[in-house]
Amino acid sequence: xxxxxxxxxxxxxxxxxxxxxxxxxxxxxxxxxxxxxxxxxxxxxxxxxxxxxxxxxxxxxxxxxxxxxxxxxxxxxxxxxxxxxxxxxxxxxxxxxxxxxxxxxxxxxxxxxxxxxxxxxxxxxxxxxxxxxxxxxxxxxxxxxxxxxxxxxxxxxxxxxxxxxxxxxxxxxxxxxxxxxxxxxxxxxxxxxxxxxxxxxxxxxxxxxxxxxxxxxxxxxxxxxxxxxxxxxxxxxxxxxxxxxxxxxxxxxxxxxxxxxxxxxxxxxxxxxxxxxxxxxxxxxxxxxxxxxxxxxxxxxxxxxxxxxxxxxxxxxxxxxxxxxx
Amino acid sequence: xxxxxxxxxxxxxxxxxxxxxxxxxxxxxxxxxxxxxxxxxxxxxxxxxxxxxxxxxxxxxxxxxxxxxxxxxxxxxxxxxxxxxxxxxxxxxxxxxxxxxxxxxxxxxxxxxxxxxxxxxxxxxxxxxxxxxxxxxxxxxxxxxxxxxxxxxxxxxxxxxxxxxxxxxxxxxxxxxxxxxxxxxxxxxxxxxxxxxxxxxxxxxxxxxxxxxxxxxxxxxxxxxxxxxxxxxxxxxxxxxxxxxxxxxxxxxxxxxxxxxxxxxxxxxxxxxxxx
Lengths: 326, 276
Fold this sequence. Notes:
Chain A: Residues 99-314 form the ABC transmembrane type-1 domain. Chain A: This is ABC transporter permease. The complex is a heterodimer of chains A (326) and B (276). In chain A, a hairpin with a 4-residue loop joins strand 1 (83-84) and strand 2. Chain A folds into two domains: 2-90, no CATH class; 97-318, MetI-like (MetI-like fold, Orthogonal Bundle). Chain A has helices at 2-30, 36-44, 49-58, 65-77, 91-126, 131-145, 148-162, 180-217, 221-228, 233-270, 276-286, 289-317, 319-324; strands at 83-84, 89-90. Chain A has 326 residues and is mostly helical. The longest helix of chain A is centred in the middle third of the chain and has 38 residues, at 180-217. Chain B has 276 residues and is mainly α. Chain B has one domain (3-275): MetI-like (MetI-like fold, Orthogonal Bundle). Helices cover 73% and strands 0% of the residues of chain B. Chain B has helices at 2-8, 11-33, 66-102, 104-119, 122-133, 137-147, 150-163, 167-174, 179-215, 226-233, 242-269. Classes of the chains: A mainly alpha (326), B mainly alpha (276). At the A-B interface, helix 1, helix 6, helix 7, helix 10 and helix 11 of A face helix 4, helix 5, helix 9 and helix 11 of B.
């Protein structure tokens, strides 16, 4: 399996980077003013010194920074993310509750961005320098320059407030008691605006890349050969050009996994979606450092996993890698 | 002057340049046209644009003049754009140049560090930095620079790797130049054009990052920033949506200007890509 070997080798190189992230973020958080216990005390409205010391011992904050870091890394290996003082339950539990929303948002946005980018990019490339191309390219440029949170707010004004077609926020109608199929429909309706908001900037990038690589590939010899053989234009595009033009897009998806996760912080805050990004924002505001570290760890893992899958897909699409295993 | 003429032959590049000049003029004119503190109470809150001759873009929900905030906000966006981008590009060039020039173990270590920054979501790292070091405007600018260097670093590294064994470099090395001279006066000038073009992408992203932070109330509340105004107007979005809409258009046009100028520069500096 040279294909899997290639992806696994790439996976191995991300382990040192993961370690750098964990150690770096842990060290960074040592500079934070106040620890979890301070945040907790602020919530409780103060407490006497004995209680404070007990709390510090309970959260293991009485040891030196090096010892705590060692402990933290050791616990991470066992997938134990510690305890969130603010939410009053294990961090892993808090994150698992929030993860599905973010995964759904990312997956649907990625799908929309890829499909939209491929279709529009292909359309623009096939009518290069004519009006459809100019229109598509201009719209792409505008999407690229639009701040996502603003687009979300404006979408809310138009589709939720003025037209009343879509809900303005949240993950589902809580009081409505939808079950089964209708619950899915309800969630889907809630995800339309957030998905569009997160996807459009990526769509604009994919569209530009797709257009450029379509133009580049279509001048190559093998396409000319196919054309000379009398293969019809649609088949040339779908079978010959598209597959090669897809390669740079696939690479970008890997790079964008982390950008998208960052973008979902903002989008989830705009639409009050109970996802990982919003959890990160809340953790920052409430100084819940354990949760923050947990989110960093899970996000990094998520990005690494996406990149692993992208490598597999890339190797699958590009026979040169399959042959050489590299 | 040849390059400049080529740039001016491209209509969208001219549009970008004009838009960028307008933003610069807004920033320069802010103190002249709106000498008062833009964050001070100016009049009755929530007056629609054009409803009152004194406030031609209206007032926000705190009774502050939106036009004044747009003018003063241009400064913050340009400041973020220029300073954060410079930090990111300089850091990126240093890391990329050293990694690409020396290769081997140094390259390996620096690239794992770059990977680390690329794996961790930009915005999450930005939130962490703000949580730890506070949200003064200086901190925000430095933090945005700190999260944006990996892409320029990779680009510089790739350029250095393709240039370091070229004949002119070998010739300079044989004539006895040291590593520093080779890196900075021989290779870097040749590696620079694509990095400069990419700086426009970094700048566009930096402006968007700051506006998102400000929107979430995590940027400096004491400076007039477009993102701040959008965050402020969010509570009256349902009825007085113009409070959010106007600063958003300002951000959009500024980022568009930066991207168009970047594309124009790209066509001039990398002519082989200009074949459509």
